[in-house]
């Protein structure tokens, strides 16, 4: 759509230019959505892609989730990834349509409020905002928990498997990593775009190195690779679930690993040419994860021990460490695990950066507790939402206490991320399907006549993935210690969120708060004019 710049938008644009925060086009588009430019725009299209791609951190993410997919055997691991990643790509396409049309840091709850029916928009927007914030916190927790396990796995390798970390030690390392990430995130703002560019190269390098080194190392040590019939055709069952359901549970690995592309959305207000950069970042990152993940898993299956249970229950506490150790020996395993640790650290850094933008945006709209405090942007520290970062760190440390129970309870940190974000992603897509026919105007990226079918597939998949994330990995009659605590945590937060809304927040929460005066009236006039001029464009559902 091509609406002329309003006086309000021009005013907001001028202020942003004077502060050196943004170029005219981006700040004008943001002003049309009701916001003035407060964060500095410094991320190129490639760097926005890098934010999501580095958070996915393909090889470290696969290493983090092998325990979810390996019980289904090599074929379950590979084809589970292939199937789920294609369906996840549909979700990326559906979100990219909206991200191009309406690029804002609070995208998911903003879109929900924009598309939902009048009676439901406030409550659904409120729920999505909380769910998305919770999901990103779950992402921080799961990434740093896995990073702690990787570090301690290296300690175990150096001691030839004789060292086993206690739950208290794991939690202590986890807390230390969370705090280090917070400090680095606060003070690395000016160089974060360059860090993201570096992340692209190091992630591609570890993919290439893993794909080449594992089979070469295996053959060099005098062992043969597993035959293709075993790699692509052997389905195992190392769980207590029926084989068919065990295969489906392998979907949890790609669901978590390819679950961070919405970080591009949360960086919208720091992206240059956001209407193009953000959707392309979503599509590129999810597409690359689909292809490269299939390749890496095929290589892992080709070199791994055919005793799948031995790999799952590695003495090092990490199946991927066992795979590296058997193919490359002690020094090779330590070298590769060291690189994975560096990448995993960068994943956590990128994630806390993206998550803080969501928390800041939701605070800007007055929805989080102590919003006036957390919405503050520090001009002294290069326009960083320092208080939002500190708030995320505090909550992440509390959630990490699950580490002290056992590894099964700690796995809820992974499912917490999935369940929360799947609700947050599905809701605006569904609202657009139901109510958004007359309201949607495409941006620079648009899937055209396929937009509606893509959205339908995305919603159905997200509903299935949400259900899947609630299942325990041990069943069908799990003990309390084997319980998936995701339903407890998410259920509590969702119930508390809705209770808080209906008792208090409904009296004052009316959706995203406009920080540009008069934009609501201008938006209404603009939409009326556009509907008249573009009645036959076919751009809507």
Automatic annotation (TrEMBL):
<protein>
    <submittedName>
        <fullName>Amino acid/polyamine transporter I</fullName>
    </submittedName>
</protein>
<feature type="transmembrane region" description="Helical">
    <location>
        <begin position="46"/>
        <end position="66"/>
    </location>
</feature>
<feature type="transmembrane region" description="Helical">
    <location>
        <begin position="414"/>
        <end position="434"/>
    </location>
</feature>
<feature type="transmembrane region" description="Helical">
    <location>
        <begin position="483"/>
        <end position="504"/>
    </location>
</feature>
<keyword id="KW-0472">Membrane</keyword>
<feature type="region of interest" description="Disordered">
    <location>
        <begin position="1"/>
        <end position="23"/>
    </location>
</feature>
<keyword id="KW-1133">Transmembrane helix</keyword>
<dbReference type="GO" id="GO:0022857">
    <property type="term" value="F:transmembrane transporter activity"/>
</dbReference>
<feature type="transmembrane region" description="Helical">
    <location>
        <begin position="388"/>
        <end position="408"/>
    </location>
</feature>
<feature type="transmembrane region" description="Helical">
    <location>
        <begin position="454"/>
        <end position="471"/>
    </location>
</feature>
<feature type="transmembrane region" description="Helical">
    <location>
        <begin position="198"/>
        <end position="217"/>
    </location>
</feature>
<feature type="transmembrane region" description="Helical">
    <location>
        <begin position="333"/>
        <end position="354"/>
    </location>
</feature>
<feature type="transmembrane region" description="Helical">
    <location>
        <begin position="245"/>
        <end position="265"/>
    </location>
</feature>
<feature type="transmembrane region" description="Helical">
    <location>
        <begin position="168"/>
        <end position="186"/>
    </location>
</feature>
<feature type="compositionally biased region" description="Basic and acidic residues">
    <location>
        <begin position="525"/>
        <end position="541"/>
    </location>
</feature>
<dbReference type="GO" id="GO:0016020">
    <property type="term" value="C:membrane"/>
</dbReference>
<feature type="transmembrane region" description="Helical">
    <location>
        <begin position="78"/>
        <end position="111"/>
    </location>
</feature>
<dbReference type="InterPro" id="IPR002293">
    <property type="entry name" value="AA/rel_permease1"/>
</dbReference>
<feature type="transmembrane region" description="Helical">
    <location>
        <begin position="277"/>
        <end position="304"/>
    </location>
</feature>
<feature type="transmembrane region" description="Helical">
    <location>
        <begin position="123"/>
        <end position="148"/>
    </location>
</feature>
<dbReference type="Pfam" id="PF13520">
    <property type="entry name" value="AA_permease_2"/>
</dbReference>
<keyword id="KW-0812">Transmembrane</keyword>
<keyword id="KW-0813">Transport</keyword>
<feature type="region of interest" description="Disordered">
    <location>
        <begin position="519"/>
        <end position="541"/>
    </location>
</feature>
């Amino acid at each position: 759509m091509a609406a002329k710049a309003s006086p309000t938008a021009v005013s907001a644009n001028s202020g942003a230019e004077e502060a050196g925060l943004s170029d005219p086009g981006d700040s004008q588009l943001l002003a049309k959505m009701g916001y003035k430019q407060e964060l500095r725009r410094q991320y190129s299209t490639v760097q926005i892609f890098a934010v999501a791609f580095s958070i996915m951190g393909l090889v470290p993410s696969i290493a983090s989730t092998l325990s979810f997919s390996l019980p289904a055997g090599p074929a379950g691991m590979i084809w589970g990834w292939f199937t789920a990643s294609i369906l996840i790509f549909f979700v990326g396409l559906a979100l990219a349509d909206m991200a191009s049309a309406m690029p804002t840091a609070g995208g998911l709850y903003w879109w929900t409020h924009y598309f939902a029916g009048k009676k439901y928009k406030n409550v659904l927007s409120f729920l999505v905002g909380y769910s998305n914030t919770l999901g990103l916190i779950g992402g921080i927790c799961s990434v740093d928990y896995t990073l702690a396990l990787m570090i301690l796995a290296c300690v175990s390798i150096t001691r030839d498997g004789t060292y086993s970390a206690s739950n208290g030690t794991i939690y202590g390392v986890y807390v230390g990593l969370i705090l280090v990430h917070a400090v680095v995130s606060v003070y690395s703002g000016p160089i974060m775009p360059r860090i993201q560019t570096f992340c692209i190269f190091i992630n591609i390098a570890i993919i290439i190195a893993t794909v080449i080194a594992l089979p070469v190392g295996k053959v060099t040590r005098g062992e043969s690779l597993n035959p293709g019939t075993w790699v692509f055709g052997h389905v195992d069952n190392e769980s207590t679930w029926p084989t068919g359901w065990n295969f489906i549970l392998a979907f949890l690995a790609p669901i978590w690993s390819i679950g961070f592309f919405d970080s591009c959305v949360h960086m919208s207000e720091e992206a240059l040419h956001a209407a193009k950069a953000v959707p392309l970042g979503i599509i590129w990152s999810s597409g690359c994860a689909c292809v490269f993940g299939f390749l890496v898993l095929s290589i892992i299956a080709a070199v791994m021990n055919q005793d799948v249970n031995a790999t799952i229950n590695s003495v090092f506490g990490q199946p991927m460490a066992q795979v590296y150790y058997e193919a490359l020996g002690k020094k090779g395993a330590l070298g590769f695990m060291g690189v994975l640790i560096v990448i995993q650290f960068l994943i956590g850094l990128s994630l806390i950066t993206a998550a803080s933008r969501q928390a800041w945006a939701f605070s800007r709209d007055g929805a989080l507790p102590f919003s006036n405090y957390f919405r503050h942007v520090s001009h002294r520290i290069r326009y960083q939402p320092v208080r939002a970062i500190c708030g995320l760190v505090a909550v992440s440390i509390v959630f990490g206490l699950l580490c002290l129970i056992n590894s099964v309870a700690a796995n809820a940190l992974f499912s917490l991320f999935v369940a929360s974000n799947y609700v947050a992603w599905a809701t605006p897509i569904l609202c657009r399907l139901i109510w958004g026919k007359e309201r949607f105007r495409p941006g620079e990226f648009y899937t055209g006549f396929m937009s509606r079918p893509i959205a339908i597939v995305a919603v159905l998949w997200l509903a299935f993935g949400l259900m899947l994330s609630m299942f325990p990995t041990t069943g069908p009659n799990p003990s309390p210690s084997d319980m998936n605590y995701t339903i407890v945590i998410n259920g509590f937060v969702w119930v508390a969120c809705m209770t808080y809304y209906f008792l208090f927040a409904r009296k004052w929460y009316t959706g995203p708060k406009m920080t540009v005066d008069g934009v609501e009236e201008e938006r209404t006039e603009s939409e009326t004019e556009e509907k008249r001029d573009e009645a036959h464009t076919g751009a809507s559902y």
